[in-house]
Amino acid sequence: MVKGIGASPGIVVGKVLVKKEEEIKIAKKTIDSSETEVSNLKSAIEKSRTQIQALYDIALVKMGEEEAKIFEAHQMVLDDPEVFGQVENKINNEKINAEYAIEQVVAPFIKMFDMMEDEYLKERAADLKDVAGRVTKNLLGIDMVDFSNLDSKVVIVANDLTPSDTAAMDKEMVLGFVTEIGGRTSHSAIMARTLEIPAVVGTGNVLSQVVTGDMIAFNGDEGVIFVNPNEEKIAEFNAERVKYDAFRTRLSTLVGKESVSKDGVHVELAANIGTPEDLDSVLRNDAQGVGLYRSEFLYMDRESLPTEEEQFEAYRKVVAGLEGKPVVIRTLDIGGDKKLDYLPLPEEMNPFLGYRAIRLCLDRDDIFRTQLRALLRASAFGNLKVMFPMISSVEELRDAKTIVEEERVKLREEGIAFDEKMEIGIMVEIPATAIIADLLAKEVDFFSIGTNDLIQYTTAVDRMNEKIAHLYNPCHPALLRLVNMVIQAGHKEGIWVGMCGEVAGDPRLIPVLLGMGLDEFSMSPISVLNARWIIAQLSQEEMKIVAETAMNLPTASEVEAYLANTIQLED
Ligand code: PEP
Ligand code: MG
Question: Ligand 1 pocket, 501 CB below 6 A?
Answer without folding.
Answer: yes
